[in-house]
Specification:
homodimer; 215 residues; mainly alpha; Arc Repressor Mutant, subunit A; Tetracycline Repressor, domain 2; 9 helices; globular; DNA-binding; TetR family transcriptional regulator (chains A, B); Tet_transcr_reg_TetR-rel_C_sf (chains A, B); DNA-bd_HTH_TetR-type_CS (chains A, B)
DNA sequence: GTTTGAATTAAACGTTTGTTTAATTTTGCA
DNA sequence: TGCAAAATTAAACAAACGTTTAATTCAAAC
């Protein structure tokens, strides 16, 4: 199913980069063709249309990411705390290593109302929540986590923080006029801070007995 | 400076709604004109161009939001914990009450590389951080907050969480086929959960003594 | 070497876009 | 009422867009 020729992959990679940096709508097929050094007609020839190219991009990265998430889901971990740490690592590493796709997806997600892309994104959001839920429940079962944790809240914090921090880094890097190398180093540095503090924050929150239980 | 006629405000409000829901690029001037029941030429006549209309929208909402943030900055609060609670309230309420603009801004922010919009967004991000920083430092001064708090991290968590939760709510609401009223009630419910748990989480994190100080 | 189908190309197509024009209507003021 | 400026309109404009066409090149099989 997902077997693309080298030329198709070249087009997809080039398109992903341009879509992420300039936006889907502001990237013309001619832009992609020029950057990938292929003829304009090749996109329609291989993918059918610009929309289908976007769909192909989503499918490709979704199968990779959701597969990874599902594998984690069936891992055996020794403690609930390790589970939480592991999940934070997986989310951060995935969002960081697939920054371009993640940027494109988040952007498109905010204006999509239905169709195959909507279904894919909804499916991924559900899987994200399942993963967080599993870790939380295992900690609750053995009594080390508080009982009134809200998973919808937690997964929003997790994903939202990473994306927001990466966006902030891009802005700071541009403001400080960092070059590509410096910017990536800056991102990496802040991602590691995020990782460390997010783990601390989640642990503190999950083990903290709720002081306003009756609210 | 910011004095617009009723017709100009009508165009701006209509444009904001369409930009937020369909995206800036996918909304044509004809779409706006039709929805606002004005002639297509009126947009260029009043604002100069579509880009300038977007700039006007940004200016309008930015002056409001940044003014509000700066006012908070000089408020007197009794305790550091109250300061944190207050800031969380302000961010949540602002992001929630200006959902449409916030959605538009976040979306455009991810593909803007320079220009007046870039400067405005950067300015707002800086102000956000200043606000968080002030609350954290006041708690550190009197010794109730830990010393190694990272403000860049905290502000990312705060803004990122709210936006991500609202985006998740939109998806859930569409999946559950809620109508407009039900969707807003669903959002409101989850925002209140977010508010409560975010305050707990921040407090737990800020007062939690760091167990890996030497890391 | 010929044939067959895929790959590649330059050119053209029709549509939509943001914007402008030029004419007309409305408004506010003397 | 008369007049000048502002507001509003329908029509037209050029440019950019995604896509298609029709011709040509390429590669592999026989």
């Amino acid at each position: 199913m997902n077997e693309y020729s080298e030329k198709q992959l070249l087009i997809m990679d080039t398109a992903l980069k341009l879509f992420a940096e300039k936006g889907y709508d502001k990237t013309s097929i001619r832009d992609i063709a020029f950057a990938a050094d292929v003829n304009v007609a090749m996109v329609s020839y291989y993918f059918g249309s610009k929309d289908k190219l976007l769909e192909a991009l989503f499918s490709k990265h979704f199968t990779f990411i959701t597969n990874m998430l599902e594998n984690i889901l069936y891992e055996k971990e020794s403690s609930a705390f390790e589970k939480v740490d592991r999940i934070i690592d997986v989310f951060i590493d995935t969002l960081y290593s697939r920054q371009l796709f993640n940027r494109l997806m988040t952007r498109e997600a905010s204006i999509i109302h239905d169709g195959p892309l909507f279904d894919m994104i909804l499916d991924m959001k559900t899987k994200n929540r399942k993963l967080v839920e599993r870790a939380v429940k295992s900690g609750q079962r053995i009594g080390v986590f508080r009982k009134d944790v809200n998973v919808f809240f937690l997964s929003s914090v997790l994903i939202g923080s990473v994306n927001q921090l990466l966006a902030n880094c891009r802005y700071e890097a541009k403001h400080a006029k960092l070059n590509d190398e410096e910017r990536e180093a800056f991102k990496k540095k802040n991602i590691e801070i995020l990782r460390k503090h997010l783990k601390q924050m989640f642990t503190a929150y999950l083990t903290h007995s709720n002081s306003t239980d009756n609210a």
